[in-house]
Amino acid sequence: MLNVKNITFSYNPKHTETPVLKDLDFTVEQGDHLSIIGESGSGKSTLLKLIYGEYDLNEGQIFWKDNEILGPKYNLVVGYEYMKYVAQEFDLMPFITVEENVGKHLSNFFPEEKKERIKELLNVVELQDFAKTKVKTLSGGQKQRVALARALAKQPEIILLDEPFSHIDNFQKQSLRRSVFKYLKEKKITCLVATHDKEDVLGFADRMLVLHDSKIIANDSPQELYRNPETPLIASFFGEVNMLNDQIIYAHQLQAVADSDLKARVVQNYFKGPNYLIEAEHEDAILRFEHPTALEVDLKVFLKILER
Ligand SMILES: Nc1ncnc2c1ncn2[C@@H]1O[C@H](COP(=O)(O)OP(=O)(O)OP(=O)(O)O)[C@@H](O)[C@H]1O
Question: Which Gene3D superfamilies does this chain map to (predicted)?
Answer without folding.
Answer: P-loop containing nucleotide triphosphate hydrolases
